[in-house]
Amino acid sequence: MNPMRRKDREMSIDFAYDVIDKSQFGTFATTDKDGNPYCIPVSAVRKDDTIYFHCAKIGTKIDNIKNNSNVCMSFVGDIHVPVEFNTNSHSEGSGRVSDTRFTTEYESAVVFGTASEVEDDDEKLLALRLISLKYTPDDMPYFDAYVSSSIKITNVVKVTIEHITGKRKKFDKSGIEMKFGRME
Fold first, then answer.
1. Is 178 helix (H, G, I), strand (E, B) or coil?
2. In this predicted structure, what is the pLDDT of residue 92?
3. What value does the mean pLDDT take over residues 114-142?
4. Rounded to two decimals, what is the model's pTM?
């Protein structure tokens, strides 16, 4: 895997974990037996160095991870187009336009790891509980009844994180980009 090109925008591993934790979905990427790429959004949750999501027991992503368990996931956190810096960002006659006029502030995380189906019922139950807490916290009083009737037919995939990077482009209140982990 190639090193991050924009090292000045690299953030800490903890930052990358935070992006995963607050993202509404992640993109899960695999390859098929012929080397063709396949990616799909999934509702993911993280515990330590493991990412979980649930899915069908059969299908393209399951076939692909059985063939090649190496996967990649990407997550996007907060995004913002910083139009507030654009009012006086073009100097008449200079030909220079502000760096903020045609840009987007963003947070992202990229994970490389290995994927497998969760076979252990206790781990599957933990993953489903974490997923439900993230996406449907108000329905937790019904969790045990629902899961007890569906756990045998529910598939959970786990991705063991082997490498993770976090990246951010963000401007401070003066419109100056905050480089290499600088926080407000």
1. coil
2. 47
3. 96
4. 0.84
Read off the pLDDT of each residue in 163-173 and give the average, rounded to a whole number.
Answer: 80
Three state DSSP letters for 9-40: HEECHHHHHHHHHHCCCEEEEEECCCCCEEEE
How far is it, in rounded angstroms, from Cα 31 to Cα 60? 10
Provide CB contacts within 8 A for 114, sequence distance 6+: 69, 70, 71, 159, 160, 162
Q: pLDDT higher for 105 or 29?
A: 29
Confidence of residue 152 (pLDDT cuts 50, 70, 90): confident
Letter for the amino acid at 74? S
Relative to beta strand 50-55, strand 155-169 is: antiparallel
Q: What is the DSSP letter of 62?
A: H
Question: What distance in Å separates the CA atoms of residue 95 and residue 155, rounded to the nearest whole number?
Answer: 57
User: What count of other Cβ atoms lies within 10 Å of the Cβ of residue 90?
Assistant: 13
C-alpha 124 chain-centroid distance: 20
Question: What's the mean pLDDT when you consider all of the chain?
Answer: 85
